[in-house]
């Protein structure tokens, strides 16, 4: 069932809302002419009415018995914020110029995660368009936008969205978002949207006034869970599944990143994720264009990405937190919190070889056995990164790797991600070593809620034994500190790092061996004590061989080089990359003694 205000044409609009326990629901038109119209009750708790004289831009509420006027839970636009009237949007009014855009193959993507509000000084969709040439120059061909569902105020990460269908007004609203995606497609850039189907934000969410959107059967970090398998759950499932289709159909997104699917609780015979995958696959078939689903999952459970034939949910790919965590601890030496599970270099070798470190192994942090084996799955089933919004922003001071490790280690982190057998994702600014933090920020209107957030952050960091006060999330200064410093990428070591990222991405894109995701064409090996990692990939006659030294000391070893003569393509220890001067030869063959500089990498091809 399509829900929300569906503008038909000629100032005619169909309104549909799900309110299964209500005895009466009225449509309250606010503008252009105020009037109240009783809605007709349909099957399964839906109410509907088609109304004339409703032009695009019309403001409206729903009147609920004994409760009063409330915005539409499936509102497509909230121009006055989360507490005010919803607005009718004509999705057919935008003229798309993307021609025959068909999406990019997932395995070809170089993903770049960005936050609309802090990516540019203006903090808008339109301002991102001016940076697309920069992203193309870098080599990025897919951007992943952090959540844009309407949240309170104008500053938020996006995970406090109260209206799952409404485009954040302060970013530019529906029309500007379409323009951004349209221009991206014209420049051969795919666009992925981060969506939140595990909770609603705490301010401005009126869904429970309409229907049982929540259940007390399960609890999440945000309170009661979304009701996906309890009484009246069909309407809740429809709400979120229709939302996914809505973003693909009306905004032409190419993929959705599903936030924290481990907090989506469903013990029914068909899991919500499996049903979502089915519906998205049907839409892909109908449109003749592939739409992707990418899961963030803390489960290390291959059921998320296994095919339905193997009893899985069929999600296209998922984030690998294990990859981030072992890379982070290896480079920084941090072992607090969940990092305590990641301390041995053989785990680095394993995560490159098998995707998960915890594959039904005991986790000291969780104090239980965790995960499942993923080493037989194609490697494009995993997205990897050295930084992202969570891993940076959930630190008390929001430090990026730039503030935590040396320049040599930053270069090595870039290579580990981009040269990995997986799909690489960058976090905005990492490509030039952005020095500004990425902090947690909000702009809630409820003073009590603001104070609750402040106290919650203090408690959270106290558990990690962090001394001092976290930055005030409500302060505009905290938000402004998180904006990128665009001049940096043209200066000194930042310029060098940017150029290194360019070279790494170009290597990945031009060598067919990097398009080989079958593990039969990938060999990962290493020396644990020396902290050396070797990546050998091949496809046809094209082969690549990567050497990475994660030790803080030079390492000399008797190398067993794969057959053939190998020519060096890139070496981070060379002086052009501000390295200490390389000790590796320009060509490799046979078995010989080699020395590699600390925290460095080199790439050879045949």
What does this structure look like?
With 606 residues, the protein is α/β, with parallel strands linked by helices. It has 14 helices and 31 strands. The strands form eight sheets. Strands 10-11-14-17-18-19-22-23 form an eight-stranded parallel barrel. Helix 6 packs parallel to helix 7 and helix 8 packs antiparallel against helix 9. The longest helix is centred in the middle third of the chain and has 19 residues.
Give a summary of the structure in a few sentences.
The protein is α/β, with parallel strands linked by helices.
Reconstruct the topology from this structure.
Blueprint (H helix, E strand, L loop, with lengths): L3 E6 L2 E7 L6 E5 L5 E4 L1 E2 L4 E6 L7 E6 L3 E3 L15 E2 L23 E4 L1 H4 L5 H5 L2 H7 L3 E4 L3 E2 L12 E5 L5 H14 L3 E6 L11 H4 L3 E7 L2 E4 L6 H19 L3 E4 L13 H16 L4 E4 L21 E3 L1 H12 L12 H10 L6 E3 L4 E3 L11 E3 L4 H5 L13 H12 L4 E5 L19 H17 L12 H6 L10 H19 L11 E6 L4 E8 L2 E8 L5 E6 L5 E6 L15 E2 L2 E6 L3 E6 L1
Parallel strand pairs: 10-11, 10-23, 11-14, 14-17, 17-18, 18-19, 19-22, 22-23
Antiparallel strand pairs: 1-2, 2-6, 3-4, 3-7, 5-6, 7-8, 7-9, 12-13, 15-16, 20-21, 24-25, 25-26, 26-31, 27-30, 28-29, 28-31
Helix pairs in contact: 6-7, 8-9, 11-14
Distance, first to last CA: 56 Å
Q: Biggest β-sheet, characterized?
A: 8 strands, parallel, barrel
Helix share, percent: 10-25%
Q: Which overall shape is indicated by the principal axes computed on the Cα atoms?
A: elongated
How do the strands line up in the largest sheet? 10-11-14-17-18-19-22-23
Number of continuous helical runs: 14
Q: Average pLDDT across residues?
A: 97
Q: Oligomerization state of this entry?
A: single chain
The helix-and-strand class reads alpha/beta
Taking pLDDT < 50 over at least 5 consecutive residues as the criterion, the unreliable ranges are none
Radius of gyration from CA coordinates: 25 Å
**Hey, roughly how much beta strand do the residues contain?**
15-25%
User: What's the count of strands?
Assistant: 31
